[in-house]
Design brief:
Elements: E1 5-6, E2 9-10, H1 23-32, H2 36-45, E3 56-61, E4 64-70, E5 75-80, H3 88-99, E6 104-109, H4 110-115, H5 117-129
Parallel strand pairs: 5-6
Antiparallel strand pairs: 1-2, 3-4, 4-5
Length: 139
C-alpha cells in the first residue's frame, strides 16, 4: 500500500484498503442493480462534483462493500433502506471494522435521500470541508 504510517495513523493521500477479491463481481452486480436513492445521490456526487473529490460506487473493502467511497478523504457514505432494517448489529460491526482501518462514515436514510437530497449534499459538502481528524488504525 502506498503511504506512510506515523504511529497508528495513515498518511497516504489515496490509501487502498485490501479486500476479498470474491467481492469484486458482487460489487459490479450491485452497481447494475442500484436503488433509486443510490442513483439520485450518485448523480450529485460523481464526476468530482463536490469540491473535486472523486467518489466510487459499491466499493469492496476488507470483507464488505460500501455504497459510496472517496479514497482521498477515506469517507464512506451508506444509504440505509429497508434492507438494513434487521441488520443494525451487522452494520455496526462492519462500520467498526472499517473505522479501525481509518474509514469515516456518513449514513443517510433512503427516505432522506428521496425527500431532502439538497440537505444530504450540504452535509457531505460540509464534512469534506471540515473533516474530523484521521481515525486511528488498528490491525
Amino acid at each position: 500500500m502506498k503511504g506512510e504510517f506515523k504511529g497508528d495513523v495513515i498518511t497516504a493521500r489515496n490509501p487502498i484498503i485490501p479486500y476479498n477479491s470474491k467481492l469484486k463481481a458482487l460489487a459490479r452486480e450491485l452497481r447494475k442493480r442500484s436503488t433509486l436513492s443510490e442513483i439520485l445521490l450518485w448523480k450529485k456526487i460523481n464526476r468530482k462534483q463536490i469540491l473535486g473529490y472523486e467518489f466510487h460506487r459499491q466499493v469492496p473493502m476488507d470483507q464488505f462493500i460500501v455504497d459510496f467511497y472517496c479514497h482521498e478523504s477515506m469517507l464512506a457514505i451508506e444509504i440505509d433502506g429497508s434492507s438494513h432494517d434487521h441488520k443494525y448489529e451487522a452494520d455496526t460491526q462492519r462500520q467498526s471494522v472499517l473505522e479501525s482501518k481509518g474509514v469515516h462514515f456518513l449514513r443517510f436514510q433512503d427516505k432522506e435521500i428521496k425527500t431532502s437530497l439538497d440537505e444530504v449534499i450540504k452535509k457531505i459538502y460540509s464534512w469534506l470541508q471540515h473533516p474530523p481528524g484521521p481515525l486511528q488504525r488498528g490491525n
